[in-house]
Amino acid sequence: MFIPLILSIVYSFLIARYFFSAEGGFDTLTNVQQLFTHPSAALAGWVHYLAFDLFVGGVIAKQADDIGLSRLIQAPILAATFIFGPFGYLLFMIVKPIIVRFKASLVYSESVEQS
Amino acid sequence: MKLDASVFFNDKQGSLNIWWQAVVLLSALLLLNLLLYAFDQRLLGDEALWIKPIKFEISVIIHLITLALFASLLSPKRRDGLAWKAISYVVVAASLFEVLYIFLQASRGRESHFNHSTSIESVMYGLMGLGAVLMVVGSFYLGWLLYREFKSERGEVLLMSAALGLVIGSVLTLLVAGFLSSSEQGYLAVKSESVMRVPVFGWYLDGLDLRIPHFFATHMMQLVPLYGLYLSRSERAIADSKSRLYWMVGVYTLLVVGVFATGVYLVKLK
After folding, report:
1. What is the tens place of the pLDDT at every residue in B44-103?
2. Which positions in chain A touch B18 (Cβ < 8 Å)?
3. pLDDT tens-place string over residues B167-191
4. In which domain, by residue range, is B10 found?
5. A-B C-beta contacts closer than 8 Å
6. Please, which residues bridge with residue B197 across strands?
7. Among B40, B53, B147, B216, which is least packed by CB within 10 angstroms?
8. Minimum distance, in Å, between the CA of residue B18 and any CA atom of chain A
9. How many domains does one find in chain B?
10. Could you say which of B109, B132, B154 is where a domain stops?
């Protein structure tokens, strides 16, 4: 979580310095496109993606370790989170409940209760 | 059939084993892939772009489940041994690599197999070949372990059918897919409207489409053990079941080799 923090500092500086001096804004798609034509604002956007994708990746990795998801299975999910943020997060959110549901201890205790 | 906990879990308290974790991930990908297929109409070559990753996801999911089931037939000593553990990870890594690369290339609207148009894609195609070989070697190795299990301790028909399916299926797959991938033109069938095609699979029925023997060689790993399961659950004597199994395996192997040889002959004739 150290790297996202550094990136957040960089982002804060960039956005405070350039957001109000650049054309455009967040209110319409056209304005967002306009905003991203300004190199420093676009850089801020890029740093924003990096900071949050890495942060979300960190959270996913922590949770994945906790539920016992193998690092080998984590790897493609984390790679997807890094490159295409929400796509990797979505993959993880589909995988997670299934991994949590099927634990040997859970399945075992339920079969004992039924018998 | 009562499935042993070792099919799904590494130990009593643990989470799903590596096979099922990979199956869960690939199923999630398959789900998203089906949605993409419904909404993205782009074509690649002669079929919808997203069909190919869907086929590979389903096929690899079936393959990984097969390995999970058969690995549970091993004695705990072999199953928990370092050798099989290491092979499991290599096979799962190779499987994920294959599917994810095919998915990635589909989304880019580009070929994954037989693509030598850029040097990176050419290298990646080579790596896919390596991955496929690793997957096949893993299946062969499991088959061999099951055969040793069959020889040393228990003479069960199911065990033998799993061993035969995996070993012969691996060798035939290596043979067919090896030949297939050594050709420059892809899977060689004449891709034309006039040739009859198999629905769902998309195969061309002109005798040249080597994806057909590839399919039957590879899925011998499921079909032979299914027959073995049927035999083991019937009332037959062990000796009778075994001879039926050997006949089935012999005829099946000859059929696959026959279709493959015909295809190769027709290719050379062209």
Report:
1. 776 778 888 998 999 999 999 999 988 888 888 888 888 888 999 999 999 999 999 999
2. 70, 72-73
3. 999 999 998 888 887 766 555 555 6
4. 1-154
5. 63
6. B204
7. B40
8. 7
9. 2
10. B154
